[in-house]
Amino acid sequence: MKPDYKNMTRKELKEHLLTHRTDEEAWSFFFEKLSELDPNQGYPPDLSDQEMERIFREKLNQQA
């Protein structure tokens, strides 16, 4: 049965992604939600170093 990503909390989605790293649909949903964040707001404090690095690289690539 397919998980309902829309009804997952952010923590639940992160846990799902950690245990299902190849779930492309879950990653797509995660990145879609991440892109909807207000760019004027700071990032949540529980982002891992890898997530922050990916976000920074993505932002740098958008400016190039």
TrEMBL record:
<protein>
    <submittedName>
        <fullName>Uncharacterized protein</fullName>
    </submittedName>
</protein>
<dbReference type="Pfam" id="PF21826">
    <property type="entry name" value="DUF6887"/>
</dbReference>
<dbReference type="InterPro" id="IPR054053">
    <property type="entry name" value="DUF6887"/>
</dbReference>
